[in-house]
Amino acid sequence: MTQVKISKNLGSKLLALALLTLLFTVVAPTPGFSDMNDNITDFGLIPLYAQTSWPTIHRDSRNSDFAPFVAPVLVEEKWTALDDATVLTAVTIGPEGNLYVTTGKEIGYSNLHAFDRDGNYLWSSEPVNSIDDLDGVVVGSSAIVDSEGDVYIGDFNQLWAFHPDGSVKWVVPIPANFVTAAFTLNNYAGIMNGYVGGITKDGEVLMLNRDDGSLAAPILELPGGPGPTPPETPLGLWQNLMDPLIIDDLYAALFGYKFEVTNTPAVNPLNNRIYIAAAGATPDEGAFYGIDFTPGNLTIAFETPMGPGTGTSPAISPDGLRVYASDGQGNLYAFDADTGAIGWTFPVGENAGSPSIGPEGIIYSLGDYLVHAIADHGTYAELLWSKDFDAIASQYLEPYPPEEPELYPISRANSIISVTPNYLYIVANLGYEILLPIYEKYFLIPQITVMLIVDPADGSVVENPVELRDTCDGVITIGSDGSLYITHGSTPRSITYYAINELLPEPLRVEKPIAGISALEPVSFLDLAVSGIHWVQDLGAAALSNLDSGEIDEAYTQVRRGTVQLGATTNSIVDAEERGEIDLKSSLQARLCVYKARKLLDNAKGVIDRARKKPHDALLRYAIKLIEKTENQLELALSILEGLEAPPITSTVSNNSDFD
Fold first, then answer.
1. Which listed residue, 6, 236, 320, 462, has the most CB atoms within 10 A of its CB?
2. Could you give the C-alpha distances from 300 to 94, 100, 125, 220, 333, in angstroms and in order?
3. Which pLDDT does position 442 carry in this prediction?
4. The pTM is what?
């Protein structure tokens, strides 16, 4: 283990709770926009991130919450873990399939945990015995994972790096903690360097060398001040689920109070710029920053005023030209990624959640406990749809009391919206809203918590909701194998159980909080494989249309996504075989067809990439031919998986070398 000292009067600085967000960023040798496709991998990630479905809190450096894999519509519980421990942020996934989860327990407990995809315990950080150990403040952060499988997480006063086996790579002191870190990858003077860093709750921007944790640039201090004064912490919040010493500050940070920065920064793959929403110079102001990093230097590129509060985590559009974030009053902003100019604002409502971004640039946001879908038209925003799910609550709950109802069932969407090519995934609490005089506000008494699977086209619920074991306040992690990982913060349930239950009629009382995490898996891996093939067919059709209209970069993006999905589809077929949904012969035949399709599409990707750099009609014609051949193989795979007569097994696959 390497101990590295960072000087800045750290020993004398009061280290208060904050949320530290780690980043991996990409540093361009010169400023300005370049092609997004050249700066990200086929997974849509900066290369330094683990190339998995979910290596960081909001899935990627853009904070998009979009996983480029189809996900199941029918799921069932596979396993649960970490009972009696609040889990607030996302489960993250390493390149070897390890799952990483943080908790916030007190002395004597560990707070970083690793599991395999089947829920088998792998390792945990050392139990907390002193301030030098990994403490419970990490509950406000998700671990981030790099391409080598190393894991980075910030606690109360240190940034830690672990190897995939749980051994400590290095640990360094920091001025205050981040929310979640991020990476940057720099090609500077011909040398590839990786950096990890974040922004502390006090607005200090740090970038460190990934190899040893040493500073890569002097610390930059943002010019804002503390956030708004927090209200009183609700009684019972996270009782017996979290270290009581950190609850007040964590509550303040979670809801955007007290600290200058309480959210996760985004890093733009297009130009390596870092973005963060923060409190302004006074509690009545907010600010949105663009920050540039080159080795040895951190600078503020722009500062744009916004509404009060610390705002939400920003999210970057797929083309890298826009950044979206909401303020503390529930206004969603569209910022120009280069200048910070405001393109438009849109009132999504109070309690706004961090926006999520679909593959075509649609913005999904919570506000007033509704889910909104918003299109960016440059100078204005268009509300495509806005949904509550009270009708779902009415399917599960009756008005109370039944004889003379005074309370009616309602729904409160209460998670970040996770986006996939086919569906949106959202957690909602179903219950009854009552007025709490002590807080002078209404509070939902949660009776049932469900995961909703929603059609992104219109917000309709596409399948029966999935009942969950406890309330959720965080992010639904999407696995490439169709697994879904739900973290249970138990915020409303802990308040209800410990502070309100005894005041409620018996039928409305809630059970003791469980917290922890739940892992869900597809009911049918065969259906998941078929869905994956259908999506690749859609991507192929879109690529052909793009090529026909001269949109070569767009076609390149489509085929890149297709190759990644076909890799996941192959695994789904294997899982279906192991589950007994398909016999060995059909599995082998279907996998061969998918292999051929992936090879053809990968060849098409290479040809289109050549055409991007040096356009040539012959290259485009050949790419079209390869995509059409891909479609033929996909149709054969579908005929096998859907029980039709299987074709004879052959092994001929076109190769790039066929074209000169």
1. 320
2. 32, 33, 36, 8, 19
3. 87
4. 0.92
